[in-house]
Design goal:
Layout (H helix, E strand, L loop, with lengths): L12 E6 L3 H14 L10 E6 L6 H5 L7 H13 L4 E3 L9 H8 L3 E2 L1 H9 L8 E5 L2 H6 L1 H8 L3 E3 L3 H17 L4 H15 L5 E4 L4 H4 L9 E2 L1 H14 L11
Helix pairs in contact: 1-11, 3-4, 5-7, 5-11, 8-9
Keywords: Isomerase
Protein name: Amino acid racemase
Organism: Streptomyces spongiae
């Protein structure tokens, strides 16, 4: 009896560097699966997940109140490489502030989630001139989205200090703690309204916990989910076997 050959649509193996936090990692993998076209198990992408919740808090590191997570990120990336990954995805916005420190030591391309979001905004019609950002204080302070959106001529607006601390960060902590509820959604929706009042034509859910607490229909403009955008970019890359420069890689 001959065993039928197993076929896969691509030789790409997606390495997910996760644990920041665990719920966001699980949500990202679910989005990768739902984004992948196919009618059978064999149509889906091979994936390796390294979920390490011991990685130090990225915002605390950027604010100078906690340890540098770079050694953990580098170690996790090497685990993924040794497990056979051919490309790395990091479903944590704030962690991208540390990508330049690890990119040239990993030996694999890293598809840059923030860069993918910036490019995605140029595909939304009518043209986005101003985008709002809901993100950790670390992501805001690091200027990750400011830098990338500037490249595409998109203005970025942010919550004021009170909204950032009392609404956005409170909501993010609730999601991480598994205690989010309707109050969490209200906090994030109020923060989003402060951005649309400043002219935002789209709101970036720039922390992977935010989509878990803020439904798209709670915002009056398009709510951009970077985790979903990253999943779509990985599917495009895998479909073309990484050719033609797919993805904002390092």
């Amino acid at each position: 009896m001959t065993t039928p050959a197993v076929t896969t649509p691509t030789s790409e193996i997606i390495g997910i560097l996760g644990g920041m936090g665990p719920a966001a990692t699980a949500d990202f993998y679910a989005k990768l699966v739902s984004t992948t076209p196919g009618s059978s198990d064999q149509d889906h992408l091979r994936t390796v997940i390294w979920s390490d919740p011991t990685i130090p808090d990225r915002t605390e590191a950027l604010l100078g109140t906690g340890p540098d997570p770079t050694p953990w990120l580098l170690a996790g990336s090497r685990v993924l490489r040794e497990a056979g990954a051919t490309v790395i995805a990091i479903p944590c916005n704030t962690a991208h502030a540390f990508v330049p420190r690890i990119a040239h030591h990993v030996g694999l391309p890293i598809v840059h989630m923030v860069g993918e979001v910036a490019r995605h905004l140029t595909t939304i019609g009518p043209r986005i001139h101003t985008a709002g950002l809901l993100a950790t204080t670390g992501t805001v302070r690091a200027g990750l989205y400011q830098e990338w959106l500037d490249r595409f001529g998109i203005r970025l607006v942010l919550p004021d200090a009170t909204s950032q601390n009392d609404e956005v960060m409170t909501a993010i902590r609730a999601v991480k703690a598994g205690t989010h509820d309707d109050t969490t959604t209200t906090l994030l929706a109020d923060a989003a309204r402060s951005l649309t009042a400043q002219g935002a034509q789209a709101v970036i859910a720039g922390c992977t916990e935010i989509p878990l607490g803020l439904p798209a229909d709670a915002v009056d403009v398009p709510l951009v989910d970077p985790a979903l955008v990253l999943a779509q970019a990985l599917v495009r890359r895998a479909t073309t076997e990484g050719e033609n420069g797919q993805g904002w890689g390092w």
